[in-house]
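pinging the channel bc i need a second pair of eyes. not urgent but kinda urgent?? the chain im working w is below, pasted from the shared doc
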Amino acid sequence: MKPEPSAGRIDGDHTLSAAISSGDSNDVASDLLTGVAQIAEFLGFSERRTFHLLASNKLAGAFRIGRRWHARRSTLTETIRRLERGAA
């Protein structure tokens, strides 16, 4: 049996959103995308393409905790808006 993690500890077995939602930051937790699948769905890309973008640091604001990728919806949305303004 696996030992219980210490309070406040964030590791590969516990999502960041669960750790954040236990505090007063529910807006942060609802804004958080956890894992390549959620990020890919939000962006409308395949998981493979999304993983490549994450691994090559081409998605601003995405970060890893342990082995899991995380990104904020608001940060990705703002990045897309900036790219659209630059392309116009």
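so Confidence is low (pLDDT under 50) at residues 2-13. and Residues 16-87 form one domain. — does that match what u expected or am i reading it wrong
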